[in-house]
Amino acid sequence: MKIVSYNLNGIRARLPRLIEYLDEQKPAAVCLQELKCQDDAFPIEDIRAAGYEAVWHGQKGFNGVAILTPKAPATLRRMGLPGDPDDTHSRYIEAEVGDLVIASIYLPNGNPVGTEKFAYKLAWMDRLRAHALELLAEEKPVVLAGDWNVIPTDDPDDVYSARAMATDALAQPESRAALRRIVNLGFTDALRARYPKGALYTFWDYTAGAWQRDAGFRIDHFLLSPQAADRLADAGVDKEYRGREKASDHAPTWIDLTD
DNA sequence: ATGTCAATACAATATTGA
Q1: Which residues of A does the annotation place in the binding site?
Q2: Which residue is nearest to nucleotide B1 (CA to C1')?
Q3: How many structural domains compose chain A?
Q4: Residue A250 annotated in active site
Q5: Which CATH number covers residue A244?
Q6: How many angstroms separate the CA of A77 from the C1' of B12?
Q7: Which distant-in-sequence residues (6+ apart) come within 8 Å of A206 by Cβ?
Q8: Domain limits at A142?
Q9: Which of A11, A57, A72, A184 could form a disulfide linkage to A79, CB 3.0–4.6 angstroms apart?
């Protein structure tokens, strides 16, 4: 079963891209990020016309996450991370899909470094770590999918230029350590596990011809619990969609799990 | 700093957040 993570950068602006992706790839589940729409503006009828159902958590203007599944909606487990009742950002949704627990994650960007935004990013990652530990205790196949807004290493297979990103929140040692603290609980970074070598960029900036010169980096990740990692058959990036008309700046990223 | 983009407030452009 193909499970996809796709940061759309606006579901209304990207609706043709999303519908054609569903038609062409027929994924078993799609985790969406950056809906940039309120709950009542979510285009559920268009998604139903494509044969899919959804659970979603929108927000005016920015953020917003969803999980799409064919025919029937996933069983919602939670919207939002525990640990901060004052957090108003729509960045986390978790649902059961068959015997899987799947989360769609839109981790804070955190730029610029040294501001409240960066502190929020690190605090949010610590809340995610605490929740991920609770999920592991269930001993189920768990898939944490999304835009993690962290480039895991300075390896050219993860980032086109470590130097260009050195001062960015996505590449800070603190951001990477916070990601490692989650992985090291016992999760598998599915894409790198499947392909230890080779560029696996998932994002190319709109500016400065980044796509044309392949100046990308890897920030969309799948973290798998042991029970899910046992079923990992393949993983990849549907890079071609980044080159289409009115594309998102992210490419759909996916795993294939055995049923 | 940016060869960019989407949404919003507001009513043609500026701001925010990527």
Answers
A1: 7, 34, 147, 149, 249-250
A2: A208
A3: 1
A4: yes
A5: 3.60.10.10
A6: 45
A7: A249
A8: 2-257
A9: A57
